[in-house]
Amino acid sequence: MPSGLPEPPPIGSTALPPKTFSGTTVLVTGGGSGLGKAIATEFARLGAKVSIASRKQEHLEAGLAALAEVDCQASCAVACDIRDAEQIAQTFDEVEAKLGPVDVLINNAAANFPVPAEDMSPNAWRVVVDITLNGTFLCAREFARRHIAAGTPGTIVNVGASYAWTGGPGFAHSAAAKAGVKNMTETLAVEWSPYGISVNGLVPGLFPHDDMTADIRSNLDRTSEKDLSQPALRVGRLRELGWAATFLASPYARFISGHTLVVDGANWQRRFMTMPAVATVREQMGKEDFSG
Fold first, then answer.
1. pLDDT tens digit sequence for 24-55
2. Residue 208 pLDDT class (50, 70, 90 cuts)
3. CA 283 – CA 292 distance, rounded (Å)
């Protein structure tokens, strides 16, 4: 009987030498919940000064609490809507005043919810694309402008999604936005490498966590054996994503730029030799037939 991929080292282990990010200021957008909080925590374990940005006060508080649990040397939380370029600039100013200039930017903030494309409102499309694609660009742009002007190197990691390659039935808005993020990552890597700025992507697989939205969790709950639905025969552990993010931003990855690293136990490459019967997105979501 196959046993799948082994479990990772325990929580609290680090993949890089201690203090790898000592003196480094890291900004994680959407860093107060879920995957962003896990990434922020791993940077803190390695000595970084960590700032988190979010629109929601409860996420800012939760993020700071998580950083305190790992004895983060210095941290701050800033309320920011990444759709607003002025708010982004103010966030960078505030982080710089408290922790120093941002050396590493983790563009994690995004919007997403499952919906059949025919049910999607124009506003739903705009909101998801505006936050996920436009917001990622605006944050990257603010970061790069400051480093180019100062003549200092920097690192950007954009959190993406595997349906940037495959398409994402039920997530047309997010899939289109994440495809834009992947392409943008590759473009900006070429433009900004001469200035010492690396730009990479990081794609998480299935990492269940307590901060999943109710609609996405309800969709996930329809899969009773989540481990058995993965080639690894298990889902990801949050710290594994954090380790990948810290590596891409570390001095040990300085010649890696324009790359998107998928951390999903090969799930996005899975194919069936005999394809199962097609089920519409509506059927998969338990929705009634579309009536116009």
1. 999 999 999 999 999 999 999 999 999 999 99
2. confident
3. 17
**Token pair of 280 as six digits:** 């519409």
| CATH architecture of the domain formed by 25-284 | 3-Layer(aba) Sandwich (3.40)
**Cα–Cα dist 142/25, whole Å:** 15
What are the extents of the domains in the chain? 25-284
- Identify whether 252 is a catalytic site residue: no
Residue 271 phi, psi dihedral angles, 5° rounding: -140, 155
Which tokens go with 97? 């005043």
Q: Calculate the alpha carbon distances from 98 to 74, 117, 146 in Å.
A: 9, 44, 17
What is the per-residue pLDDT for 216?
Answer: 55
**In this structure, which amino acid lies at residue 175?**
A
- Contact yes or no for 51/98 (Cβ under 8 A): yes
- Catalytic pick among 163, 171, 192, 207: 163
Could you read off the pLDDT of 131-164 as tens digits, one per residue?
999 999 999 999 999 999 999 999 999 999 999 9
**pTM across the whole model:** 0.93
Q: Which two tokens stand for residue 31?
A: 């860093």
Q: What is the Cα–Cα distance from 104 to 107, expressed in whole angstroms?
A: 10
CA–centroid distance for 177 within its chain: 13
